[in-house]
From TrEMBL:
Keywords: Signal
Compositionally biased tracts (Polar residues): 232-242
Protein name as it appears in the record: DUF1996 domain-containing protein
Annotated region (Disordered), positions in chain: 34-202, 227-250
Ranges of biased composition (kind: Pro residues): 140-149
Ranges of biased composition (kind: Low complexity): 42-118, 128-139, 183-194
Signal sequence extent: 1-20
Keyword Nucleotide-binding (UniProt): no
């Protein structure tokens, strides 16, 4: 019976171990999912659920072990009951022998001889009737405490309490009964160690963006103020139609800020217009290249890509720009007038930038990020907007438009072209030129699952949104654009 129970306990233990192992096997999720702030709290909840399941499995194993111990104890008690019955029978036999001896003493004179009392009775009845070893006899003064059932123990103790802390079982009282093996203490649930998924998630926590970098556009107050165009102003617009980068012209270069350097931007750019733009572009190479724009506009327009972070694309990127590149559904390149004055032609090959790719660490002095959603263009935010169903995300990038009248670039790429004041007036000593506004429209996940490419230390902060432009229009095309704007037309 013991051997059969031990075999059954071993099989139960092996089965529970296999059950516990089953719950540790899981499919490794996409790296991009871990980089999704919307998924991080869910991943945390899943890890907690896994730990809870492991705890339940361990408790189940503990209960099975305790049941096995209870069965062993019950067998021991059954054996003790049989031994006690045997002892009671022996005692009855001994009492009967004593009565027989008294009867013999009354009838046989030889029974009066003291020497005869030292002789063992026939058949060795004394040995069979000898009292049991006191050490193995139950104490009449100490009642045997019943062993609590696993159900009782679970009600009195925490579910994950070690079995070694349970009430100790009574040792077996049968001399031939082997002592029960020590109740094994519960194997502690292993503490969480940084594994594949947790390592990736910790890395994504370093990458950004964070939940606080997103906002429901409906929670943003209306904050767009329209500047009224004065009589002397210029209200026309000229739009250059250059496509949406359908030809996938992308690279991580920036010939304006980091000329002659490959991967000078440390993030991927979308390009429209000039087909040759890279880190080694020059005025001559740009002028000789083809273009995606209508009317022969060879200008180059570029901006950091936006990515869907719910996929495994680009996971090996050293700069942490992971996810699938989202191609804009619409790209508007509109040159606008000035509210208080006419505009003058901008020089060919002038370089202009807007925004600050390092605004998260530099501060907001040069930051120009404007995010919104279609249907909500009367409000903009510096956070990633979460757009309602039927609405698309907008990136609005306004360029400076007050030229110093001399330079096509400057040491910091900013001081040769400045922004007008709140009324639209240019600073003294500068001239109003057509102001470029890029409006990029995207279909994005409705959750916080997208981010703009950025320098690694910028943590994909939405305030780092920026764009670049180099004018390579012919002089004739530029004059046509200026004339259209100053006349108040839409071209």
């Amino acid at each position: 019976m013991k051997r059969a129970f031990v075999t059954m306990s071993a099989l139960a233990l092996a089965a529970s171990t296999l059950t516990a192992i089953t719950f540790t096997v899981s499919t490794v999720p996409a790296f991009g999912d871990h980089c999704d702030p919307a998924e991080q709290s869910q991943a945390q909840a899943q890890r907690q659920q896994t730990q809870d399941q492991q705890g339940q499995d361990q408790n189940q194993q503990n209960q099975q072990n305790q049941q096995g111990q209870d069965q062993q104890d019950q067998q021991g008690q059954d054996q003790q009951g049989q031994d006690q019955q045997g002892q009671d029978q022996n005692q009855q036999n001994q009492d009967q022998q004593g009565q027989d001896q008294q009867n013999q003493q009354g009838q046989d004179p030889a029974a009066q001889d003291p020497a005869a009392q030292d002789l063992p009775p026939a058949g060795g009845a004394v040995n069979q009737a000898s009292p049991a070893d006191p050490a193995e006899s139950p104490s009449p003064e100490t009642p045997e405490s019943p062993e609590p059932s696993p159900t009782q123990a679970s009600e009195d103790e925490p579910a994950n309490e070690s079995l070694s802390r349970r009430r100790p079982t009574q040792p077996s009282r049968t001399p031939t009964q082997a002592p029960p093996s020590a109740t094994p203490s519960a194997t502690p649930t292993p503490s969480a160690t940084p594994g594949h998924d947790e390592g990736e998630e910790a890395e994504c926590a370093d990458l950004g963006p964070f939940a606080e970098d997103f906002v429901d556009i409906r929670q943003v107050q209306r904050n767009v103020q329209t500047v009224r165009t004065q009589r002397a102003g210029s209200s026309g617009t000229f739009t250059s139609r250059c496509g949406r980068n359908e030809n996938r012209h992308n690279n991580p270069d920036n010939f304006i800020v980091a000329p002659g350097v490959s991967n000078g931007a440390h993030h991927l750019h979308d390009y429209v217009g000039n087909l040759s733009t890279d880190g080694f572009s020059t005025d001559q190479s740009l002028a000789a290249a083809g273009t995606t724009c209508a009317l022969g506009d060879r200008s180059t327009y570029f901006w950091p890509v936006l990515r869907d972070r719910t996929t495994d694309a680009n996971v090996d990127d050293a700069d942490g720009n992971v996810g699938t590149v989202l191609t804009a559904r619409q790209v508007s390149l509109q040159f606008r007038g000035n509210p208080v004055s006419k505009v003058t032609a901008m020089p060919r090959f002038i370089r202009i930038i807007t925004g600050d790719a390092k605004a998260a660490t530099n501060g907001g002095a040069n930051g120009r990020a404007q995010w919104s959603c279609t249907g909500f263009t009367n409000r903009v935010t510096t956070k990633y907007p979460l757009c309602p169903r039927g609405s698309q995300l907008l990136r609005i990038l306004d360029f400076p438009s007050c030229w110093d009248g001399q330079n096509t670039d400057s040491a910091n790429h900013r001081t040769h072209v400045l922004f007008p004041d709140a009324r639209g007036a240019c600073p003294s000593g500068t001239k109003a030129i057509p102001q470029l506004r890029m409006t990029l429209t995207y279909t994005t996940p409705r959750t916080a699952s997208f981010a703009v490419d950025a320098f690694p230390e910028q943590l994909h902060n939405p305030v780092t949104d920026h764009a670049d432009f180099a004018n390579v229009m012919s002089n004739q095309l530029m004059r046509s654009a200026v004339d259209c704007i100053n006349r108040g037309r839409r071209c």
